[in-house]
Amino acid sequence: MVYQVAPTPPPGVFRPMLSSLKRIFSDDAQWAATRTTAAFSARALLSVGIALFLAFSFQLQSPMSSVTTVMIVANPTVGALVSKSVWRIIGTIIGATISVGLMAVFVQSPVLYFMGLSVVVGLACMAATFLRLFRAYAAVLTGYTIVIISAPAFDNPDGIFLSAMSRLAAVVVGIVTTAAVFMVTSPRRSDTLFTQIHGLFRDTVNYILAFHQGYSNVPAQNPDALPGSTFRALPTTFHDSRAAMLTRIARLSDAVEYAAADNYDISVRQREIRAGLARLSGIVASYHPHTITPADTEQDRAVHGEIEAMLHTLLDLTKDQALEAMWTQGCARIQHTRAIMIDEARATHSPRSLLFLDDIQDLLGQIDTALQDLSRRGSAGRRLRLQPYLEWPTALRNAARGALITLLTTLIWYVLHWTAGPTMMLYVVAAASLLSTLPSASRAAGMMAAGTALGIPAGLLCHIFLLPQIDGYPLLWLSLCLMLLPGVWLQFHPKFGVGGFGYGVFSTVMLQVNNPIHYYNDISLFNGWMALFMGCIMLVLSFRVILPPNHRLDAARLVMSLTRSLRRLALSGRRQGKEWLVWENLQLQKVIRLAMRLSFFARPASMHEYIDAALATLSLGRLIERIRTIAGSPDIMGAQQAAIYDALGTFSELAHNPLLTAASLRRAATILCPPDALTLRPAAQVEAMACLEQAARIIEDIPGFLDQRGPLQWAEDYPAAHRPPLAAVRTEAG
């Protein structure tokens, strides 16, 4: 007998795989992430097995609907799962009610029914764009449920009510099973979240410390800025660290809201914690290239030394103590440093040092309040109710996409009499609704469609090699686990998460696992798979070809929204008071969306300039609020108060001629306190002058950003679109 030795594979074939496995076991962070993913996958697949078993036991008409429900609601955070499940039930009930009503009204008019269905799905997509977190699933399930309930009832409209009850039963089975499995097998500890909040506060303090240590002496280097500008060109590492901090704060804020649905310790302090996190994001955003940090004189360096000493004290206090234990000492240290800044401001003869001292003492006040909100119950944050930003253009575009794709698929089914038409309708309505919950639906549409399309060959392999071998429920469950595992696992990957979600959710639709299980009809299977593949094509066409996004236009709208908010704030005639944080958080949401839009078309250098300018508008809004507060001081005389309000009145021209507004602010600052009288005027007049001067400087640094004829407001093929990002469009006189 002759043995043939197999050829040795090239050494580079398995090297990447072995390298990846080695990193998983040697890197603590990757090993922890792998364990988390494996634990979530095990819980999700266990929920699938129990839900499907119960659906078979209850003799439900569509048992795989319970599996689809598990794949949608499964979430590693139990609080998020509970919230998601509750809103999914609400959406299912609303969808079932609307489905019965539409069928009753248009039972004899299919075309009118399709039009009504398209309108409802469009409204659901718009609501899904507006709603935050898993509240959006109520809107998603509204349109999705209508199609699932209505499709089987088209041949027999009298069975619509039984179809609705069957669908609701399958959803409830999936939700209850998933919630029970995850709540029993997942540890729910509030101390883990409090540890993350503690670490985030320390990282924010380190971020501020790095700014004072590393970026204090960076001169103005922006070639497009006006003479005397304080707008500097900071290194890329600064922009990256700031973006990372803002992203961490946003994610932790969402995690707090999730945990509040399941954890009492978090729920009783939810508002204070979210207010404190919002203040931290405002503090991070306040440190931008315009921030005045002079270190020209010995006095300036001493001030920086005091700030750094205070920050080191906070780091030392939080090293071994929780925020709840050290907040009194920390706040006392912050207030001590703030008092020093105020005293230095009263004694300074330098206008630039005065602006810096005024700015830093206000930021110290924000740190003080943030520490109180994060460390104790009953702080000022409890009275705040943060608001989500409603981006109407994006919502209307998603509504149009959802309505259009629904109408097209229903008409294709109606005209061609395609037996698999309902399957295509089911997919496009569900996918369009789910995509509407994402920040960039068009970008995710391709990934969602690709993940769904990959489920077709997976379903073919499952039907050929796995399902024919089963002789009982355990093997059926194992077959489903093998098919669903790639989608469940990839949901944790930041790049392929949307595709993994599409694969995991819609691959369940590709399997003909009914009650009872009959022989598999190849023609029926391929007919359904073709419907899903056509749905993927239509999804991409609708979101990326027929109604594609215009990221430049969206960015321009966000910029003008920031300008309008400043205008309204200056002209409102009333102070925001304790609601100031709500305004700032709303504008910061716009800045985050602006960064995402710019990432699609802008060069990194231009993107950094635009984001820096957008964050400077937040500082400008804070200055406007402070100016209004100071204007009511008894030390502000009648003529001086009139000058302040006249200057604020010129904000009506901010979008037309920002330099005119800046000049008016400077004139008011001179009336309040000339530069040579800093030590002679009352403190309120000096503070008002400093705020007016800072506001003028910010506007003079970013006139092209604020102007409605700035470069971002023009289409790419216009010459004006290629002007320097922040340069003035016209002079003050123009």
Give your account of this protein's structure.
This protein is mostly helical. Helix content is 71%, strand content 0%. The protein has 27 helices and no strands. The chain has helices at residues 15-26, 28-57, 64-73, 78-105, 110-130, 136-150, 160-185, 190-214, 236-260, 264-267, 270-286, 298-320, 323-347, 351-375, 392-416, 421-435, 441-466, 473-490, 497-506, 522-546, 551-571, 580-598, 604-631, 638-649, 658-672, 683-701, 703-706. The chain is elongated and about 95 Å long. It is found in: Cell membrane. It is a multi-pass membrane protein. InterPro entries: PHBA_efflux_AaeB/fusaric-R. This is FUSC family protein. Keywords: Cell membrane, Membrane, Transmembrane, Transmembrane helix, Transport.
